């Protein structure tokens, strides 16, 4: 569960609201939001003239002669298109060479890469490292980590040889981020730390994304605190759009749910004499709530007001969730009224946040009151709000109410998502209405909403617990026939567990 932090840019508000909304956590933050790769094509502009020297130029020209005649006039040449295509082919050839390497086999990897006579560029690094990253799994992680490191080292050395000077190709922040992701996926914590240290030592620009990868890999430990200090003191730490590096770090920590480290960073910030702003307060308030430090939460809220820092859109979102979770209806109403006085008209997000908190507290009557209030104020519920209500009814074993809400959702043009369907399927299974549950599964697929492993596991587990082993096996067969998931755990009967992976 997350919340939205305060930033002024509308574009950034949209970006962060995806990750930091105080609602029921319907999806996990992924590791794949790769900001660092944006703009990498611009870096490759100086090497457009180099690719034409390779023997791939003539091959691509022959293959694309028809395109060239149709799309360009005399004397014109689509250089960018051919450059990207050449780089893609070179990347594939590098990956083929890397596949041939086995430790102790006598295969000289550096010599084989040299013989390719390729031009090292940032685009080539992206192609090769992405190719390695896509192949990382439990069985291949050690090999992928080793190959990525060898290619990373070779490319820097090869660029120096090619250019003849040390000012040739050098690894960019994007390349380092891809290496960090590979090491992180391979669970190479030591290599992640050493690579970050190398970035700081070589004065490569480090960003909040660099720190985010580090903290997700290393977790909460004493060594991570040392890395925190390095980031704050680093001259190349780019922490925009935040007005100080501590806020950039706090944002990464709240996404990674490192609440104890948030407290530590906040203390360091105060020791440095840096005054917290509303973004800082939002992050620390949310961390203290998640740590269960409600007394400290209240003190910090009062401190924020005393320091002249007025609550913003996102601060009220936190207050409403806390009030809802505590079942404090009077407090919730007071917050809504104060928002109106301060010019923050409560919107769909605030009502959904409040309803979610009340639902978790088991107060469905209050949920219905605020759901109706929301509609009267012109805030039409979306799929998230409907799913929160449906989930609350299912947990309270009010399947009829959940069905009514589901039907209303459809009639209002809101398409259910996988979490809505999973809540309904779980409700039917809890009531042992397995026929309806399987009908709902078919309806889900008919509407183009692909069921995930959790949906299947819900049906299978309830069927098995009800002693309907043959029906559970039939669901598993249907799942395997569709080719979406593969059954992995052979000891299902003993431990009643099952795991699936996407094929």
From TrEMBL:
Transmembrane segments: none annotated. One of its GO terms (molecular function) is mRNA binding. Gene3D superfamilies: Tetratricopeptide repeat domain. PROSITE patterns: PPR. It comes from Rhamnella rubrinervis. Belongs to the PPR family. P subfamily. PPR repeats lie at residues 277-311, 312-346, 347-381, 382-416, 417-451, 452-486. The keyword Repeat applies. InterPro entries: Mito_RNA-Proc/Resp, PPR_rpt, TPR-like_helical_dom_sf. This is Pentatricopeptide repeat-containing protein. Keywords: Repeat.
């Amino acid at each position: 569960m997350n919340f939205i932090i305060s930033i002024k840019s509308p574009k950034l508000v949209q970006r962060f609201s995806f990750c930091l909304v105080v609602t029921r956590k319907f999806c996990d933050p992924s590791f794949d939001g790769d900001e660092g790769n944006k703009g990498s094509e611009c870096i490759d502009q100086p090497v457009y003239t180099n690719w034409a020297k390779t023997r791939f130029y003539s091959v691509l020209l022959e293959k694309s002669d028809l395109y060239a005649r149709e799309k360009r006039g005399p004397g014109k040449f689509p250089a960018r298109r051919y450059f990207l295509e050449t780089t893609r082919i070179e990347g594939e050839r590098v990956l083929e060479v890397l596949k041939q390497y086995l430790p102790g086999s006598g295969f000289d990897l550096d010599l084989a890469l040299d013989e390719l006579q390729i031009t090292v560029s940032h685009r080539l690094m992206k192609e090769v490292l992405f190719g390695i990253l896509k192949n990382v799994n439990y069985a291949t992680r050690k090999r992928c980590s080793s190959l990525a490191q060898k290619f990373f080292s070779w490319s820097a050395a090869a660029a120096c040889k090619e250019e003849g000077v040390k000012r040739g190709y050098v690894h960019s922040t994007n390349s380092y981020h891809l290496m960090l992701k590979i090491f992180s996926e391979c669970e190479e914590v030591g290599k992640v730390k050493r690579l970050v240290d190398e970035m700081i030592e070589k004065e490569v620009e480090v960003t909040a994304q660099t720190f985010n990868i580090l903290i997700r890999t290393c977790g909460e430990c004493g060594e991570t605190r040392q890395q925190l200090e390095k980031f704050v003191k680093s001259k190349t730490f780019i922490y925009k759009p935040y007005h100080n590096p501590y806020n950039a770090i706090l944002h990464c920590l709240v996404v990674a749910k490192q609440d104890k480290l948030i407290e530590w960073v906040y203390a360091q910030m105060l020791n440095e004499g840096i005054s917290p702003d509303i973004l800082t307060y939002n992050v620390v308030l949310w961390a203290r709530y998640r740590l269960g430090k409600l007394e400290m939460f209240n003190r910090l809220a009062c401190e924020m007001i005393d320091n002249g820092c007025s609550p913003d859109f996102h601060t009220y979102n936190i207050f409403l969730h806390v009030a809802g979770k505590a079942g404090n209806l009077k407090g919730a109403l007071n917050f809504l009224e104060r928002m109106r006085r301060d010019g923050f008209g409560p919107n769909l997000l605030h009502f959904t946040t409040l309803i979610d908190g009340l639902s978790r507290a088991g107060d469905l009557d209050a949920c219905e009151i605020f759901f109706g209030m929301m509609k009267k104020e012109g805030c039409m519920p979306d799929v998230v709000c409907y799913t929160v209500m449906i989930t609350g009814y299912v947990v309270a074993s009010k399947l009829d109410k959940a069905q009514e809400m589901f039907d209303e959702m459809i009639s209002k043009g809101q398409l259910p998502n996988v979490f809505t369907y999973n809540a309904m399927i779980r409700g039917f299974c809890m009531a042992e209405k397995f026929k309806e549950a399987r009908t709902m599964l078919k309806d889900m697929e008919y509407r183009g909403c692909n069921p995930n492993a959790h949906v299947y596991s819900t049906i299978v587990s309830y069927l098995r617990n009800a002693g309907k082993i043959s029906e559970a096996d039939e669901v598993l067969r249907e799942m395997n026939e569709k080719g979406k998931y593969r059954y992995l755990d052979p000891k299902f009967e003993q431990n009643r567990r099952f795991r699936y992976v996407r094929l």
